[in-house]
Amino acid sequence: MFPSDRPRRLRRTPALRRLVAETSVEPRHLVLPLFVREGASEPTPISSMPGVVQHSRDSLRKAAVEAVSAGVGGLMLFGVPAEHDATGSGAVDPEGVLNLALSDLAAEVGDSTVLMADTCLDEFTDHGHCGLLDADGAIDNDRTVQVYGEMAVAQATAGAHVISPSGMMDGQVGVIRESLDATGFADTAILAYSAKYSSAFYGPFREAVDSQLQGDRKTYQQDPANGREAVREADLDLAEGADMVMVKPALSYLDVLRGVAEQSDVPVAAYQVSGEYAMIEAAVERGWLERERTVLESLTSIRRAGADLILTYWAADAARWLGAEQ
Ligand code: PBG
User: Which of 14, 168, 243, 320 has the fewest CB atoms within 10 Å of its CB?
Assistant: First the structure.
């Protein structure tokens, strides 16, 4: 009989396909990134990310409650300060927008979700770099990580469950771990953006946080040409005390994600970034792609490549679609 193998047998009905699916996406796997803007009384749309806004403190609370009731696994918070300066002082200020918003969310949704905070200076500096600059305008790695340590303590104090260093400075996880341990936050976890590439796909994010950056981040973020380096970065972060590691962006880096996931003995996250969101939304707007199918396929692919959790701007929508499916 020809053909002797018929893999189509297991694709014949929806029930068969459901029975044998290797990968699933559940709402709890999804983390929603949220932006909060200092002094805003209304949410401000982000034009390159249709459907995503810079929240006011009030609208942030509401969006958080909605996402949590849709079943998302967690929230990742970014601050957009009114003032920027050379050292990004708003980041360590307990009254800084990110820290105030974290306290708001801790009060509003508390332990019913996982509150994560972006621990990086780029939103707060007037030059837009993720670190402090020395007299020659170069990144001062070792002074920067000390500030990250202070920033982490301010975020933990405000109620963050997870500190998420995204600045790609050497030694950042170790210094943050020590700072947290020394201030009574031994139980606050670290999600390290271990393999973070210098990517054009962050374009829309720069609008989302009113980034002041001129130039690029190539002396600290990874070169897209390199895969092995990602595994090394993740190993270093684990040795320094990371509780979870991340690969970012997601879709163009699924091989990297797989490589890190194969080596890792901790949960692995992937960040479906602003440009990945914008690409699909733009095509959907033109009627060229179907939103729900495309988004769920991309999330399934990221899970299949090895992600335990996924940061995605569609987290709340996808959680609702998935909830309706069951
Ligand atoms: C840095 C940071 C960036 C993103 C998350 N954290 C920007 C950058 O490194 O240039 C990008 C996220 C996205 O594009 O969705 N604080």
Answer: 14
Contacts for 17 with CB less than 8 Å, ≥ 6 apart: 10, 11
Number of domains in the chain: 1
Domain of 155, in residue numbers: 23-325
93-100 mean pLDDT:
97
Q: Which residues pair with 125 in a beta bridge?
A: 85
Residue nearest to atom 14 of ligand 1 (CA): 202
- Residue pair 186/139 in contact (Cβ under 8 Å)? The answer is no
Q: Does a structural domain hold residue 4?
A: no
Task: Please say if the pLDDT value at position 4 is more than 70.
Answer: yes
Contact 266, 242 (CB under 8 A): yes
C-alpha 47/C-alpha 205 separation (Å) is 11
Question: What CATH number is attached to the domain comprising 81?
Answer: 3.20.20.70
Residue 1 lies in a domain: no
Query: Is the pLDDT at 325 greater than 80, yes or no?
Result: no
62 among known catalytic residues: no
Q: What is the mean pLDDT of residues 97-120?
A: 97
- Is the pLDDT at 326 greater than 80? The verdict is no
Identify the active-site residue in 55, 177, 248, 303.
248
Asked, for residue 16, whether it belongs to a domain, the answer is no
Tell me if 315 sits within 8 A of 323, measured CB to CB.
Answer: no
Burial bucket for residue 225 (CB in 10 Å: 0-12, 13-18, 19+): exposed
Q: From atom 11 of ligand 1, which residue's Cα is the shortest distance away?
A: 202
User: Is residue 159 assigned to a domain?
Assistant: yes
